[in-house]
Design goal:
Order of helices and strands: EHEHEHHEHEHHEHHEHEHEH
CATH class of the largest domain: Alpha Beta
Structural class: alpha/beta
Helix content: 40-55%
Number of helices: 12
Strand content: 15-25%
CATH architecture of the largest domain: 3-Layer(aba) Sandwich
Strand order of the largest sheet: 4-3-1-2-9
Number of domains: 2
Largest sheet: 5 strands, parallel
Radius of gyration: 17 Å
Bound molecules: D-glutamic acid
């Protein structure tokens, strides 16, 4: 199966990492809209327009499935993308909600959703979680973590002070934290340490693997996955990040 993976930038590589770890596909074509990242501070119409343009890009390849490895796009543009597409388009929000349910069945659990401004504003995770009976929900737009990850600051003072800024007021560690932005798994270790390992972290990449396993006929491949990386700006930069993150 040849699939496309789309993100506003490099964050979706954290989803590719999970797909590669599970050897699920023969070929992955990745497109990062690096010229226009971040999407998370843009309005709904812009996010939809950019996402439909990305869909056009994938028409150059005969893909069987498109994974939008961006929570912001998943929260706003999936319906429009599906309408204009001949193949399946799946996002990361529904898989994240299902992964949470599988990891933490107790609907009284305290759940903290982290995301970009746009994702948090959409209320997409809350909607999905409430439908399953979860009520103890809160959300923080941790937008600064996007450029921090893009700068490769996975540890150190800058990251630490951003975590203090966002989480310093919390009375206790939540039972679960949804990493509702595909950039955030890169700083998952620091978030885990911040909350002293007391919170279960939900990661879009692992969530999508779980979702694919339940909804699609995918099986581990014996051959290595073919990878192609494209970007709307500085594709060499994206390929360099992919080499580092994916240990290629
Ligand atoms: N990776 C994107 C997401 O999952 C966030 C980055 C952005 O703001 O474009 O929402």
């Amino acid at each position: 199966m040849r699939i496309g993976v789309f993100d506003s930038g490099v964050g979706g590589l954290s989803v590719v990492k999970s797909l590669l770890d599970h050897h699920l596909f023969e070929e992955i074509i990745y497109f990062g809209d690096t010229a226009r990242v971040p999407y998370g501070v843009k309005d709904q119409n812009t996010i939809i327009r950019y996402s439909l343009e990305a869909l056009e890009f994938f028409k150059n390849f005969e893909i069987d499935l498109l994974i939008t490895a961006c929570n912001t796009v998943s929260a706003y543009a999936l319906d429009e993308m599906r309408l204009q597409s001949t193949h399946d388009v799946i996002g990361v929000v529904d898989p994240g909600v299902l992964a949470l349910k599988n990891a933490i069945p107790d609907t009284n659990a305290s759940i903290l959703i982290l995301g970009t401004k746009a994702t948090v504003k959409s209320g997409a995770y809350e909607k999905g979680l409430r439908a399953l009976g979860y009520t103890n929900l809160s959300a923080i737009a941790t937008s600064l973590l996007v450029p921090i990850v893009e700068e490769g600051l996975y540890e150190g003072a800058v990251l630490q002070s951003a975590l203090d800024h966002y989480f310093g007021h919390l009375p206790h560690a939540p039972d679960a934290i949804i990493l509702g932005c595909t950039h955030f798994p890169l700083v998952a270790a620091a978030i885990n340490t911040y909350f002293e390992g007391k919170s279960t972290l939900i990661h879009s990449g692992e969530a999508i693997v779980e979702y694919l396993d339940h909804h699609y006929d995918v099986h581990p491949q014996s051959n290595p996955t073919q990878l192609k990386f494209f970007a709307s700006e500085n594709p060499e930069g994206l390929r360099k990040t992919a080499k580092e993150w994916l240990a290629l």
